[in-house]
Amino acid sequence: MVNFSVDGISTVNVRQNGALQDAYPSQEGISAVKVTAFNNSAEFSQVGDVTFTTKSGTNKFHGSLFEYLQNSALDANPYGFHGKAPKHFNTFGGSLGGPLSIPHVYNGKDKTFMFVDYEGNRRTTAVAQQFLVPTQAERDGNLTNLNGPVIPQGNISLTAQALLKYYPLPNVVGQQNYNFENFQSTPARTDGADIRIDHNIRADQSAYARFSRKNITANTANPLLPNDVDSIHNRSLLVSYTYAITPRLLNEFRFGFTNVTTSVGFPIQGAAALAQLG
């Protein structure tokens, strides 16, 4: 197991669509990454650790803007499929850092600094699916292709007829293992922001605070059923105070708080579905 932490405070890791989603900051807000593969220190709960250190502001204002685009233009067709899976993936954001100053009120040069960043992404992708579904003849009770009899329409149960409505009709011919294929759309979006304030109290004392938020909404494909629409809301706060008591004695106090709220939205309610199936 590997512990993930930001500025030394552990984060909560959540798996979404097979990928690990963390409370790590925007790539523009990371100043260093430290990876410990084994023999980790006791302050972390796992043998290995990945620690992200966030950026702080400086005496000069610096900023950035970025956008990355992925699409299906250079993708190959998935094996066995006719056509490409649609894909459009934008990652964008920016950052700004510098002295924290309020005109005519406070000048933070050499003393107080701020750094803020934002990163979002919008993903329109699809999952390639292949299934073996009942043909129209099989729905009507003709099971001769399955070495079975022909069932009269009046003998097909109402529950079976209601259940078959969830199955699509075949759209592929000439394949033995499947007769239906599709690209199931799985859109997702992420919005994350971080703000950090650093303050030099005096030559031997300093403090900083960081607040991060990240909202993730993603669709998860279900075979022959509507998508899950899942969401993750991640909030974290860190306060740190460092005091150089002597040239050889250093004390650091940290307080961290992380809150993660997850929800899974599946549109079919069990009781209602059973009632419809009779």
Please describe what this structure looks like.
The protein has 278 residues and is mainly beta. It has helices at 136-139, 158-164, 270-277; strands at residues 2-6, 9-10, 14-16, 19-21, 30-36, 48-54, 62-71, 88-99, 112-124, 126-131, 180-185, 188-202, 205-222, 225-246, 249-265. It has one domain (2-133, 168-277). The protein contains three helices and 15 strands. Strand 1 and strand 2 (9-10) form a beta hairpin. It is elongated. The model is unreliable at 14-20 (pLDDT under 50).
What's a quick, concise take on this entry?
This protein is mainly beta and 278 residues long. The protein has helices at residues 136-139, 158-164, 270-277, and strands at residues 2-6, 9-10, 14-16, 19-21, 30-36, 48-54, 62-71, 88-99, 112-124, 126-131, 180-185, 188-202, 205-222, 225-246, 249-265. The radius of gyration is 27 Å and the shape is elongated.
Question: What's the structural domain tally?
Answer: 1
- Per DSSP E runs of 2 or more residues, the count of β-strands stands at 15
Total helices: the number is: 3
Largest beta sheet, briefly? Answer: 7 strands, antiparallel
Low-confidence spans: 14-20
The amount of helix comes to under 10%
Find the structural class using helix and strand composition.
Answer: mainly beta
H/E element order: EEEEEEEEEEHHEEEEEH
**Principal-axis shape:** elongated
Q: Give the distance, in angstroms, between the N- and C-terminal Cα atoms.
A: 47 Å
